[in-house]
TrEMBL record:
Residues 1-60, 67-123 form the CBS domain. The keyword Protein biosynthesis does not apply. CDD domains: CBS_pair_HRP1_like (cd04622). Keywords: CBS domain. This is CBS domain-containing protein. It comes from Dyella jejuensis.
Length: 133
């Protein structure tokens, strides 16, 4: 798990979030409220498909209108198998991790599974996430 992942607020501009993605070399940024509780996620795909392809200007658009909410997430005590199962079920490549109060504390990416001992789970996730729905 990546601890202390980059995050944004629902009021941030999509252009600013895209810059954050570039700096951090990530494709998803968790969206948190003022109490640091997870409220959604914004992906590079959300920005391209929901904003740019629709003809909207990322420098004037805010995250709230384009993010995926609520985000699927797991608690920090979840196992790698729990993470892999949720990734496969929801066909997502990343799972935000929250503490007991719902505050963002980490994120697990599909690449994290590949680096772990959960390689059997990796195949299931890769197949499900990469298959058309």
């Amino acid at each position: 798990m990546t601890t202390n992942p980059r995050y944004c607020s629902a009021r941030d501009s999509l252009q600013g979030v895209a810059r954050l993605m570039l700096e951090a070399d990530v494709g998803e940024i968790p969206v948190v409220d003022e109490r640091h509780q997870l409220v959604g996620v914004i992906t590079d795909r959300d920005i391209v498909v929901r904003c740019v392809a629709a003809g909207d200007a990322p420098d004037t658009c805010v995250v709230d209108a384009y993010m995926t909410a609520p985000a699927v997430s797991l608690g920090k005590d979840a196992s790698l198998e729990d993470v892999a199962n949720l990734m496969a079920k929801e066909a997502v490549r990343r799972i935000p991790i929250t503490d007991e109060a719902g505050r963002l504390c980490g994120i697990v990416a599909q690449a994290d599974l590949e680096r772990s001992k959960a390689r059997s789970q990796k195949a299931k996730v890769s197949h499900r996430v990469s298959s058309p729905h």
